[in-house]
Amino acid sequence: MYGRALSCALLSPTTRCTIPQLIRYFARTAAAGAQQDVTTAQLPEISQYFQKALPHQEVYDLSLNNPSAFWGSLARTRLSWYRDFDDVIDCDMTKAKLKWFINGKLNVSVNCVDRHYMKTPDKVAIIWEKDEPGQQENVSYKQLYEMMNQLANTLKSHGVRRGDRVCIYMPMTPLAVAAMLACARIGAIHSVVFAGFSADALTSRINDAKAETVITADQVLRGGKAIDLKSTVDRAVLDCPCVRQVFVAQRTGAPVSMGQMDMPLESEMAKQSTECEPEVMGSEDYLFMLYTSGSTGQPKGIAHTQAGYLLYAAITHQTVFDYREGDIYACVADIGWITGHTYVLYGPLCNGATTVLFESIPTYPDPGRYWEMVERLRVNQFYGSPTAIRLLLKYGDSWVTRYDRSSLRVLGTVGEPINTEAWEWYHNVVGNGKCDIVDTWWQTETGGICIAPRPSRVAAPIIPGAAMRPMFGIAPAIVCPDSGKEFTGNDVYGALCIKLPWPGMARTIYGHHNRYVDTYFKPFQGYYFTGDGAHRDKDGYIHITGASAFDEWTTVLFNSRRRHRLGTAEIEDSMDEHGGSDVAWAPAGCAGIPHPVKGEGVYAFVTLMEDVQKDTDEIITELKSMVKKQIGSFAAPECIQITPGLPKTRSGKIMRRILRKIAANRGDELGDVSTLADPSVVPMLIANHAPIE
Ligand code: 6R9
């Protein structure tokens, strides 16, 4: 019944022309100052661009010079709509007004599942690579369709409506993917919280989103260890007056206590039909929110919308990874991270791909896990993190070379810069010198990859450790942090900004739009400010120089696929909960420090109150356990330096620049410290530098 409704509603592609024709056409009309009619100029499948090796520069220029035609054509050929959009772009970056595909109507779950279910029901949508190797399970598009619909009907029958927020706190299972898609189907906004965050962190995220429904599981399995999830949710929801129901899936079957709000997910689903009418959503309705950190303690619920996000996810997935029909594609990120949203789920499924859902860790049962999986599943694209690569290279080449990796074509990294040693090892050992290494730069806020060495087919070699080229539609700008002026030439360093809107960009911080505008659009008028620093080299390629140059983020990595962007302020706040009469310390400042494996670790400076009797080791243990409780064990500082004083300005502001240098053991690079109220603290801090554990 539903299939009929869908096929009537979907638009059929109109006339097509080739990219060179299109480019000539645009060049002509642009020269004449004419506006082209996007409905008559359909861009062909981008895959043709690969097959024919068309010049990247021309396609890229087209995407910047005529974004309406470029994205409009792609939206019409690559997504299925209930109603065509009237206009492609209605954006004003100075006001953070960001609207794409105006008045279009579609459903993301239809695009990700139904389309492929109708064409190839038995095609494998998800390979669930379970924690134990060799026990993978395939989920076909038909099975995913049915699971998603039963879950959607379950939510609906328990009163979840369009626009409601649903918190998903689950292990890496097909049910978690189905839960995200089920929300998309009924127009609910999902907020996935990484199933490693503590009860307190979960509480604040649920309350900020005002989520009434939580979906969780009994336990999560990670590297052979079972960790309770349900009991964490129980503790979290005690302080969440908004929550009225908790669905509990079974991962391990461990006994859990079921309270009045709790419902077993699988048995509720079993009562439901496998058909669920999709909600007709507007292009700009919210699809999901995802919490990330910034320079203040309060995490930000970054909100993405339906059409622009999905299109950007699909196009970047295909072009950066050279995804081709029939490939087995593996992104080993957790779904609690934006990488899991865009490149495990939405991008690949929109493209009808077979996507691997990796539940384990890179060293379980041994450091050959990834490559054994590559051999067993015949993986074509592998997308992971520099942390994992750095970790694995320490174990030596034999864990890699004993497995057949000949299926691999593209190796990707994301999340932080990849150092040359790790890049070379990834390229020479893992990829046998034959794969493209794509170092992809992007953020939760950008929705998808913005800078990466591919899709360019230019013969020029990829520069180790450089993200290099902007994606279609991305216009990077290197801006002088002091004057706010854009550097136009090459070989320049500055704040990385983006000067044109693109469809995948976040639309707001959920419930805090002013904060969104202030954080990203106020620092440099007319630009989106990424918070990162970058160098555009003499040949025009972009190298990311890191986040901490321009704000106070720190990136904490605690294993390969669960990478977290944490604000230093968030960690400081978590150590500041020691109210009451027994106050022993004043949390001072945290800074990101280079860490040999994690990439970045946390270094905390803490001052003690006078007359504190406690032993410092005891205090350090207590501080670490506070961070573990409030945020999660991955955020616990690697080093805590107890210090009698801090580098403060006369107005009392801590000079974080100095803390960062000292934490990184670069006390000789402090520069001018004359503005400090008491410069004598500096040698003291340097002398007491704490080593990384
Ligand atoms: C996708 C993701 C975003 C921040 C970003 C930057 C850092 C990401 C990077 C990179 C250097 C890369 N980052 N990719 N730095 N090279 N290839 O990671 O999203 O968790 O929001 O983090 O991560 O600092 O601003 P998110």
Structural class: alpha/beta
- So how many helices? 22
Helix content: 25-40%
Main pleated-sheet profile? 8 strands, mixed
C-alpha end-to-end distance: 61 Å
The stretches of 5 or more residues where confidence is low (pLDDT under 50) are 1-43, 548-562
Radius of gyration, CA atoms, in whole angstroms: 25 Å
Q: Kindly state the mean pLDDT as a whole number?
A: 85
Strand line-up in the sheet with most strands:
12-11-8-6-7-14-15-24
Ligand inventory reads:
ligand 6R9
- Broad shape: globular
What amount of the residues lies in strands? 15-25%
Tell me the number of strands.
31
Summary of the model, kept short:
32% of the residues lie in helices and 23% in strands.
Key features of this structure:
693 residues, alpha/beta, eight-stranded mixed β-sheet, seven-stranded mixed β-sheet, 31 strands, disordered N terminus, binds ligand 6R9
